[in-house]
């Protein structure tokens, strides 16, 4: 078996307030997602979301089930969202070979028996994925950057000029509860997701990439009136409970993937907080 997994339990916001640096990182930061020829994943008890990474180097890697799922196949009761964060490569879904370019997405629905990730013919291969429980089977669909719902927000003057590509949302592809997108900060911009917000109806995970190895992002989390921070490096992810804000500022511009699971597929369903009210 080429899958390594761990479980993260849900944290009460009152307990969260007492956490120091080490405990914050232990419960919310996900490191080492890409290991040679293997699947690394974290099963969270926030809406049962799975956060994972695959790094096929010199052999193909199959997405396998693991004991926690109590299922014959990984997707027997789940849906899957994959985003390619490295060189163009291919994924085989129940025998169909699908080309996935850099930052393109692939949705795989409930009931699929086999997903295989292949090494890129040129360059590095890294697939990031989220998976959530599913109640209905929707068809597999690749989403190119041209097909994504794309918006530009912010400004260079406020250090938050960014392009948001909503690749796996209900306006683009049918899903049960999973939503994912890619946000790129433009050179000179470092802030993401300001004004900060929460959404009690769904949790979120942030995955940071295209961040220079000698730079970091300071990711903010916690209730708006009692925030904490975690310093995050390239190819690392942070879990965000429904009661927590999720925002960040980097020492360089960067790109991140946001993934959400929960009961509401309305992207704009969020409770915003004025910047000057944060503590």
TrEMBL record:
Reaction(s) this enzyme catalyzes, per UniProt: 5-dehydro-4-deoxy-D-glucuronate = 3-deoxy-D-glycero-2,5-hexodiulosonate
Keyword field: Isomerase, Metal-binding, Zinc
Source organism of this protein record: Rufibacter roseus
InterPro entries given in the database record: KduI, KduI/IolB_isomerase, KduI_N, RmlC-like_jellyroll, RmlC_Cupin_sf
Cofactor (UniProt): Zn(2+)
Name this polypeptide is given: 4-deoxy-L-threo-5-hexosulose-uronate ketol-isomerase
Any coiled-coil regions, as ranges: none
Function per UniProt: Catalyzes the isomerization of 5-dehydro-4-deoxy-D-glucuronate to 3-deoxy-D-glycero-2,5-hexodiulosonate.
Keyword Methyltransferase: no
A GO term for molecular function: 4-deoxy-L-threo-5-hexosulose-uronate ketol-isomerase activity
This protein's pathway: Glycan metabolism; pectin degradation; 2-dehydro-3-deoxy-D-gluconate from pectin: step 4/5
A Pfam family of this chain: KduI
Binding site for Zn(2+): 197, 199, 204, 246
Gene3D superfamilies: Jelly Rolls (2.60.120.10), pectin degrading enzyme 5-keto 4- deoxyuronate isomerase, domain 1 (2.60.120.520)
Gene: kduI
Entry keyword annotation includes Hydrolase: no
């Amino acid at each position: 078996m080429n899958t390594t997994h761990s479980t993260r339990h849900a944290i009460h916001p009152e307990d969260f307030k007492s956490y120091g640096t080490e405990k914050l990182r232990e419960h919310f930061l996900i490191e080492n997602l890409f290991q040679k020829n293997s699947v690394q994943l974290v099963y969270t008890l926030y809406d049962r979301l799975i956060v994972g990474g695959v790094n096929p180097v010199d052999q193909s890697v199959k997405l396998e089930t693991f004991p926690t799922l109590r299922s014959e196949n990984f997707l027997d009761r789940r849906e899957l969202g994959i985003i390619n964060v490295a060189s163009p490569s291919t994924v085989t879904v129940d025998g169909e070979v699908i080309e996935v370019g850099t930052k393109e997405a692939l949705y795989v629905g409930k009931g699929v028996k086999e997903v295989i990730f292949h090494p890129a013919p040129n360059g590095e291969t890294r697939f990031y994925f989220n998976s959530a429980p599913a109640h209905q089977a929707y068809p597999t669909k690749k989403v190119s950057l041209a097909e994504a719902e794309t918006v530009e927000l912010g400004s260079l003057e406020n250090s938050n000029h960014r392009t948001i590509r909503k690749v796996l949302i209900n306006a683009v592809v049918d899903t049960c509860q999973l939503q994912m997108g890619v946000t790129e900060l433009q050179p000179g911009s470092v802030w993401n997701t300001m004004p900060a917000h929460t959404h009690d109806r769904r949790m979120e995970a942030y995955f940071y990439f295209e961040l220079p190895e000698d730079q970091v992002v300071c990711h903010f989390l916690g209730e708006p009136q009692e925030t904490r921070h975690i310093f995050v490096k390239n190819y690392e992810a942070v879990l965000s409970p429904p009661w927590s804000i999720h925002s960040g500022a980097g020492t360089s511009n960067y790109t991140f993937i946001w993934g959400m699971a929960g009961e509401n597929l309305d992207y704009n369903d969020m409770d915003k907080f004025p910047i000057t009210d944060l503590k």
